[in-house]
Amino acid sequence: MREFDVVVMGAGAPGEVAAGRLGQNGLSVAIVEESLVGGDCSFYACMPSKALLRPVELANEVERVPGLELGPIDSAAVLARRDDVIHNLDDSSQLPWLEQHNVTLVRGRARISGKLQVDVEGQETLTARRAVVVATGSTALVPDIPGLRDAQPWTNRNATTAHEVPPRLGILGGGVVGVEMAQAWGALGSKVTLVHRGQRLIEREEPFAGEQVLESLRGLGVDVRLGRSAAHVARDGAFSIALDDGSSIEVDELLVAVGRTPGTTGIGLEVLGIETGKPLRVGEDLRVPGHDWLFAVGDVNGRALLTHMGKYQGRLAADAILGRSVKLRSDGGQSPRVIFTDPQVGAVGLTLGAAQEAGIKVRHVDVETGGNAGGSFIGHGAPGTSRLVVDEDRRVVVGATITGAEIAEALHAATIAVVAEVSLDDLWHAVPSFPTRSELWLRLLEAYGL
């Protein structure tokens, strides 16, 4: 039995950040990981998906700039570059960072066996003097559709690491993973059919964002079927999917992208009387109520299934363990988020509909994202809308959505405005430089009436 100040369960991004911050501040820390250090984000989600999508962005931008020519996308080269980005699923490059932050890596499956105790399956028991941090992430949800699980469909892990372009790809789900993978594999030459039970794509974002992504996917040749669900799946070489409207599709691979399941099963929570299979509820300091030694960060707590927010939670949990006063200020529905399709969708805070449902007296203003001098050079002629949602009583921005070509880096200014509650009158004096696309802020404030 080994003893540490803190034991972290899971070495994905949130667990790594919590462990590193604690180790850097002089505590002895063990981090237990049964798979790859770096987690899904590094190897199966954020990083490989963006590596697949980046050539699509560049190809579309080349088409918008006169004087440049681009041949067909080389799918083999794109997949090879993706493999470079994920280090061919080898996590050895991640290990020096843990060593530099005085974190001890323990390979194996972690399971809570009692207060401040974590068993590493088949190996040893680790004892924590101060705290245990649960950072076991989430896994892809495969719904109970007849025949689906037996057919062994793709999840995000397969879709982001596949080494062959499927001639025909089916996708169930029109959320972030669904639309990003539809665009990536469609651009690489796959004939994609996307089935979504809702009436619009990326339903948690502003309606105009879903409409613009839908138009882009259909322009790429993706067959998008809204308001439809899979009723039955069979596999005999190819997949045959019967839909609830009586139609059917046949594809070579099928990606299920309908949601995530928190990693709370099989990690010992039942010995603490905590229900498994659901998100691990935490307070504003990331502690699990009733267990002041137990913390949960990242997807496992269900607050914001975004890597950057999990890392933010990891920093706060570490600070709480170090005895500092902490309180979550920005996560959940107010988290900044980017969908890396073309057009990209960046959003932070509340949508117009969510603000209205919250009872806020709001007003919104929209401008064309490229309707400024900077739009002459980047994203020229590309669709894009920028929206501010303003709390009229406080005269602060409570939500912002920006769509358009390569707008991801523009989102952070909106995040600062929302999280810091910068007044419109102060924003008016934050003058954007010319000729940049940041002038969309000037256009938004002018549209508001300043």
Note the topology.
Layout: E1 2-9, H1 13-24, E2 29-33, H2 39-43, H3 46-64, H4 75-85, H5 95-100, E3 103-107, E4 110-114, E5 117-120, E6 124-134, E7 138-140, H6 156-161, E8 168-172, H7 176-187, E9 191-196, H8 207-220, E10 223-226, E11 230-236, E12 238-243, E13 248-251, E14 253-256, E15 260-262, E16 287-288, E17 291-296, H9 307-321, E18 337-339, E19 344-349, H10 352-357, E20 362-368, E21 385-391, E22 396-404, H11 411-419, H12 424-427, H13 440-448
Parallel strand pairs: 1-2, 1-6, 2-3, 6-17, 8-9, 8-14, 9-10
Antiparallel strand pairs: 4-5, 5-6, 7-15, 11-12, 12-13, 16-17, 18-19, 19-22, 20-21, 21-22
Write up this protein:
It is a single chain. The protein has helices at 13-24, 39-43, 46-64, 75-85, 95-100, 156-161, 176-187, 207-220, 307-321, 352-357, 411-419, 424-427, 440-448; strands at 2-9, 29-33, 103-107, 110-114, 117-120, 124-134, 138-140, 168-172, 191-196, 223-226, 230-236, 238-243, 248-251, 253-256, 260-262, 287-288, 291-296, 337-339, 344-349, 362-368, 385-391, 396-404. The protein has 450 residues and is of the alpha/beta class. The strands form five sheets. Strands 1, 2, 3, 4, 5, 6, 16 and 17 form an eight-stranded mixed sheet that branches. A five-stranded antiparallel sheet has the order 18-19-22-21-20, sandwiched between helices. A four-stranded parallel sheet has the order 10-9-8-14. Strand 18 (337-339) and strand 19 form a beta hairpin. Helix 1 packs parallel to helix 9 and helix 3 packs across helix 7 (176-187). The longest helix has 19 residues, at 46-64. 46% of the residues are buried. The model has no long low-confidence stretch (mean pLDDT 96).
